[in-house]
Amino acid sequence: MKKYLLFVLSLCLPLFLSSCQRDPDQPALPELSVSGTTSFSFDAGGGTGTFTVQANRPFSVISDATWLAFDPQHVDQTVGETGEHVITVTALPNTRFEDRNGTVVVKISSDHKDLSVAQTGNPNSTPSVVYTNDFDKGTSTESEPLTAGGSDIWQNATGYGVTSSLQYYASNASARSTRASDSDNKYSDYDASGDNNIFFGKLPTYFVISGLKLHPQHKNLVMTFGVDPGQDKTFADEDFSVMISKDGNSWVALPACEFSDEVGEAPVRLWAFASIYFSLPDETAPESVWIRFSPGVESSYRIDDLTLRMAEEYETDRLTKIDWSDSQTISISGTPIDVVLQ
Asked: Which domains does the chain have, with CATH numbers?
């Protein structure tokens, strides 16, 4: 019996081994590697750099940054044969004040390699972003009152105007992660950040940014933010005041909010993307300004993804010039909240 089993095994073993061997007609598994560097840094004037790709498949080089170009951008490498190719990366000059970053992706059929690219801004340009804050330094697990000495989980501001002189004031306002602006697109009609938002509670309630530095050329401005008027509520300009001041005492109302075409009528039961287009009357912008958000109804409104930036050329016909003399006196009380610089 034992001899019989050994005989059977001797017949089956060659068949088993042959089944484990690769079919010579089957292409080799995809292989991809990058050498030379995995990151590039360019100054504002632009420049070139190179990296080397080893691959046994056709591959492409793509990027999310329109200011980058590649040569070659696609290589028809023969399948199964490993080839080595030098790729040249070219960064166009950066005409903006802000630094910028991009990702380069080398991609074959079932694999990819990522490289990072950074470029410094042009110090001779006018800063385009004055202030931006998605309020998402972290995610709040409970209502976080906006108070001096309180949690800074909502302080995620960057931009030209964010300096050590910037401060906040708040009354009955808090950072919350409930009813987040993205909510898997259940509530939001724009590409919102989610996580934290600023909730306005019982009256009087407001959120103030003070000492927001401006560049002398910051005359034509656009303020954008996500806004949620509350469950079963309709946004109304008379219920949501947005004002600007040069000194924190005399305040001028900004023009009415405009909403994206997708919204049409003022939003109901969802986050919407609001824009305010305005220009300052001064020959040169003041050194700094204050911004005040103050709903006239309690425990309803929220804001998120706040940005103040220069208007683009195509937006200038939508600007409304404000009049500093058309002001009202409003006192801002309370202990200021110092900015946390990023």
From this structure: 32-119 (2.60.40.10), 129-338 (2.60.120.260)
